[in-house]
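Example record

The entry below shows one chain as it appears in the dataset: sequence first, then structure tokens.
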Amino acid sequence: MIDTEQFTLVLRKFTDAVEAGDGSALSALFTPDGTYCDGFYGEFIGREAIAKMLEQHFWGHAENFRWIMMDPVVGENIGYARYRFSYTSKLPGVEGEQVIFEGMSQFSFREEEIQYYREEFNTGIAVSQLKFTPDRIAKHLAKRAQSVRSRAK
């Protein structure tokens, strides 16, 4: 069982690791078979995959990360926090564009390690700040909608 003090510490270590691009530190917070389900990149299972996700996807496509967790709530083996997330794009054609969005994180724990992390945020708000074409944004949102529909079956 995780308590509020422990959860707050996990949140700080989690965001510090992301902001520093430290895949080892982030993945060490997870169980060996833990899952990180990212709103952009999808699901990554296991510490090695989680570390690569942070270092290759996050830091491969962006920099200057800032992740602020707010209003944490924790139960027996689950915690929630709302957040504000920002970064500067390194994507070709939109280098230097700053992206800021808000969302909600859910952490499921096995003892004091993260078993499963998932998040909810409006990806349309994020991609619109990258000055993508309306067609590209629509394609992205249609793909996200299909993902939600497939889980509802």
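Notes for this example: Strands lie at 30-38, 42-45, 62-74, 78-89, 98-110, 113-121. Helices lie at 4-20, 23-27, 47-61, 123-128, 134-151.
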